[in-house]
Every structure is written in C-alpha cells, then in structure tokens.
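User: quick one, fold this
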Amino acid sequence: MEQRSVEGFSCYSVVPRSAGTSVPGTAARAVLYLHGGSYISPISAWHWRFIGRLAAAGHRVEVPLYGLAPDYSHRDAPVLLAAVYRKLLEDFDSQDVAFMGDSAGGGLALAFAQQLSEWSLPQPRRLILLSPWVDVAMENPELAAVEAVDPWLSRAGLRVAARAWASGDDLTDPRVSPFNGRLSGLPPTDVFVGTHDLPYPDVLRLESLMRSAGIPVSLHVADGAVHVYPLLPVPEGRAARKKILELLQC
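Assistant:
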C-alpha cells in the first residue's frame, strides 16, 4: 500500500504482492474505488477488507479519500478524481480500468463517469456499482415499502447528509443525483443490490433508464440482502464478491 497526496487529499494505491514475497507486484488491470458513507463518513475497515480482496486477486486499486460533507461538497470531488484517473492512465489503458463504488461511492462513481468528457478523459472499461445512492432526493414513493424492511437506512437522516453534500444546489442536480444525468455513452455496468436495501427501487429505475439509453447493464439482485451486502461476511456477500472478481477479469 502506498499513500500520496493528490489535490490536497490522501490517495492510496493498493497493489498485489509478488508471488511468495512482500514485494509489490505488477497488476494487469486497475480499479478506481470510491467508498460509501453517505458522503459524511470516512472509509471503514469493511471497505479496506474488500479492497484487499480486489488487490489480492491481482488488481491495482486506487482509493482516493474524497472530501466529506459538510466541509466539502460534490463540487470538490471531480477535481480530485480527475487527477487520480489521469495519473492512473499513465500506467493503464482506459480499457484496463474499472470504476467501482458502494452506496454514496457508487453514486459518485456514476456521477464522475458522466462528467468524464468535461475533463477530456475516456470512459473506463466497466462500472461496478454496489447499492449505489443515485437519487439523493429520495422522492420515489416506492422507497417507503423498502425502508420498512431495511435495518440500517432511513430517508430522514440521509436527506440531511444529501443537503450537506449538495451544498446549496438542488438535490436533483445530476452532479448530486446521477440518476438524472446523461446515461448515453457510459460503459457496460453491473449493479449489485438487495431487496431489503433502501436504494433498491431507484436502482431498478436506473437499470430501466440505462437499457433505454442503450447501455449494457446487468442487475444482480440478492433476495433479502441488505445495504452494500457484497462487503459483508454473509453467503450473499461471498457470492457477490466471487462474481465481482469474475467481472473484473472479463
């Protein structure tokens, strides 16, 4: 693991070890990983365990620790992410890079992919989104039924975090809620979500819109699974992690 400063923020490069040694090895492909936490919480041990598995499977994982609300907003993140991605492209072709994120990080990964043309940067080979928070306004009436069975998340607290991240901008702004952004031109996308996961109804809507925009999208739904279940030590999580590693090799 190597830490450096990019645009004033910490960024980590996690690389696979060479076989049988503690020396960093080379990776054929890379992942730009954005952690979740409602845009207000720092990266957690669960994230690092998952990132470690990605690296152990032979991938270089770039982990930029973007600024959190309320000290920072959605306007600060693209500057950091563009710098990190541009540096990554010095070592990898864009078709050897995947963007991945969970929860708020999944929403941010999608929003950044939508903004790549503004930075004159190419699309990655693939997007992998884990329980992505793609509509922070959360006005979908179907959310109420899922909120009743989600053991972790509630709209009341999330809306406070959303307003802090939006920092005065409308919650429907595509830079904040990429559900409302341009979907055409995005790379093939895989989305993982559970049926007891508050974003589930919005993820279903996102899949439909992406298909209408001609984007190859695969939805992986785990019945009864909770928020960001691929990070958790449960059977559904283990199955999802196996599938994610397979997707990164495709």
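User: anything notable?
Assistant: The first strand starts at residue 2 and ends at 6.
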